Amino acid sequence: MTSTTESPATPPGGAEAAVPGRVVVLAGGLSHERDVSLRSGRRVAEALRGAGTETEVLDVDSRLLERLAADRPACVVPMLHGETGEDGAVREVLELLDLPYVGAAPVACRTAFDKPTAKAVVARAGVHTPASVCLPHETFRELGAGKVMSAIVDRLGLPLMVKPARSGSALGCSVVRSPADLPHAMVDAFAYGALTLVERFVAGTEVAVGVVDDGSGPRALSPVSIHPDGGVYDYTARYTAGSTEFRVPATLSEELAAECARVAVLVHETLGLRDLSRSDLIVDADGVVWFLEANVAPGFTETSTVPLAVQADGLDLGRLCASLVAGATARGAHRA
Predict the structure, then answer these.
(1) What would the 3-class secondary structure string for 89-147 be?
(2) Helix (H, G, I), strand (E, B) or coil at 291
(3) In the predicted model, what is the mean pLDDT of residues 240-264?
(4) How big is the chain by its Cα radius of gyration, in Å?
(5) What gap in Å lies between CA 157 and CA 324, rounded to an integer?
(6) What's residue 242's pLDDT?
(7) How far apart (Å, rounded) are the C-alpha atoms in residues 62 and 53?
(8) β-strand 174-176 against 205-212: which pairing, if any?
(9) How far apart are CA 64 and CA 277, in angstroms?
C-alpha cells in the first residue's frame, strides 16, 4: 500500500467542524456482517473521540430505542453492515424519532442496497454495468434448476459472478468458470438471501472509490486498487490482514483514475446518496469502467478502503467524521 504521511488536516469544505453534543455510533446488529460492523463502529467512535467529540457505541437490540429516548444524542452514525443496517429500515426508525443521522435517507438506501435495482438506475445514467439476470429461489425450484442454469450460461456465457442480490462483504459470492460449478455457487448465494444476481464476469482491476460530502458537494476520495492474493476479493481477502494489497494511488493512469472518480460521484448523485458512500468498480483491459455495486455504510476496519483513501488524501479521519456529523446535525435542525 502506498500512502502519504500527514499532519491532521481540516475536512473537505475547509472549516473545523463543531459537533454540538453527544454522538451515538450504531454497530453490531444481527446480520451476517455483525463482526465487521462492530469493528467499523469502534474505529469511527475512536476517530470521533480523537477529534474531541463525546461518542458512545450502541448495539442494535430491543433496548436501543429506550436508551436513545432516555438520553437523546445530538446525532447518530449508523455503521451497520448487511441487510438490517443498509436497507434503510433503521434510518426510518431514526426519522420517526426525529434523530439526525449521518448517511443516505431510507429510500436511497433501499435503492442502493438492492444490487439489481441499483444497476438498473445507474445504467440509465450512462454507467457501464455487467449484463446480468436476477432470479428468486422459487424460480429454480418450480422451473427446474438445471434448465434455468443452462439458459443462464447460454445467455451470459462464462465466466460468471454469482452473488446474493441483497448482501455485502462479498458473502455468498463466487466466480463460476465452468457449468459444473454453477449449482454450488447458486446454493452459496441463496444461503444469504432468497434472490440471487448472476452477472457476466468482468476481468480487470478492481477499484473502490469513496465519495464524501460535508455540505460543499460530493467529491471522490483517491481511488484504491485492490489486489487480492487469491485473485478474488472475497470475505477472507477483505478482512484478513495481509491477504490483499491495497494501492493508493490506484495502479491506473491519471485519466482512468479520474474516470473512476467521475463514475463514483455520478453513482452517488444518481442513487440519491448523501454524506458518504463507496462505489465498487472494475476497470477492464480496454479501459472501460464498470459499476458493480454501491455501499451506503462503507466499512471502517483496518483493511477497509475508505480510511486508506482518507489517509492518502492527507485528511484526518476524526475531523472528517466530525464534519459529516456536524452536517447531519445541521440538516436535522433545519428539517425540524
Answers:
(1) HHHHHHHHCCCCECCCCHHHHHHHHCHHHHHHHHHHCCCECCCEEEEEHHHHHHHCHHH
(2) strand
(3) 92
(4) 20
(5) 43
(6) 73
(7) 26
(8) unpaired
(9) 25
Q: 144 Cβ partners below 8 Å, 6+ apart?
A: none
* Cβ partners under 8 Å of residue 180, min gap 6: none
Instruction: Tell me the pairing of strands 23-26 and 174-176.
Output: unpaired
What integer is the mean pLDDT of 307-332? 96
CA dihedral sign, ordered 11, 245, 165, 285:
positive
**Quick one: 46 exposed, middle or buried, by C-beta within 10 A (0-12, 13-18, 19+)?**
middle
Mean of the per-residue pLDDT values of the chain: 90
Q: Cα 151–154–155 angle (5° rounding)?
A: 85
Is 8's pLDDT higher than 80?
A: no
Residue 38's pLDDT band, with cuts at 50, 70 and 90, is very high
Mean pLDDT throughout 213-234? Answer: 87
What span, in angstroms and rounded, lies between the C-alpha atoms of 97 and 95?
A: 5
Distance in angstroms between the alpha carbons of the first and the last residue of the chain: 44
pLDDT at 244: 86
Cell 442513487, located at residue? 271
Q: What does the alpha-carbon distance between residue 86 and residue 120 come to, in Å, rounded to a whole number?
A: 19
Alpha-carbon gap, residue 84 to 64, rounded angstroms: 14
Amino acid (one-letter) located at 13: G
The pTM of this model reads 0.90
Q: How far apart are CA 268 and CA 266, in angstroms?
A: 5
Strands 160-164 and 195-200: antiparallel
User: So what's the pLDDT on residue 5?
Assistant: 32
Residue bearing the bigger pLDDT, 168 or 9: 168
More confident residue, 317 or 191: 317
Cβ–Cβ < 8 Å for 132, 165 = no
The strand pairing partners of 289, in sequence order, are 283
Q: How far apart are CA 335 and CA 63, in angstroms?
A: 27
